Amino acid sequence: MARAGHLDAIELRVFDDMTVEVALSVMAGAGVDHLLLCDGDDERTGSVTRAELAVHRDSSAYTDHVRLRDVLGAPCPVVGPSSFSL
Fold first, then answer.
1. Strand 13-15 relative to strand 44-49: parallel, antiparallel, unpaired?
2. Per-residue pLDDT at 1 exceeds 50
3. Stretch 15-26: mean pLDDT
4. Contact in structure between 16 and 37 (CB atoms under 8 Å)
5. Handedness of CA 30, 32, 38, 44 (dihedral sign)
6. The pLDDT of residue 46 is above 80
7. What pTM does this model have?
8. Which residues pair with 37 in a beta bridge?
9. What is the Cα–Cα distance from 69 to 48, expressed in whole angstroms?
């Protein structure tokens, strides 16, 4: 428990070229629900949550080569009534 409490005070920064799978693994291992994203110059480019990444990972367009920068700002796939055919 002390580890998770300590990490809550620290925001994990990762490069935006990390794959979604690795990011989800890092979040699970660190017990955090979001990551701060940085570019190659270590400038912050945004943040992602575990829930956002899970939605992208579960979409039909997902591959294990998808990088965080590819999903940053991308709309999460939405399944609506028009997605179904009878």
1. unpaired
2. no
3. 94
4. yes
5. negative
6. yes
7. 0.72
8. 14, 46
9. 10
Q: What would the two tokens of residue 66 be?
A: 């998808």
Beta-bridge partners for 48: 35
Structural contact between residues 47 and 37, judged by C-beta atoms closer than 8 angstroms? yes
Residue 9, SS3?
A: coil
Nearest Cα residue to 47 out of 76, 9, 13, 5: 13
The first and second tokens of residue 10, run together, are 């620290």
Q: DSSP class of residue 20?
A: H
CA dist 2 and 11 (Å) reads 16
SS3 content of the chain, % helix, strand, coil (to 5): 40, 20, 45
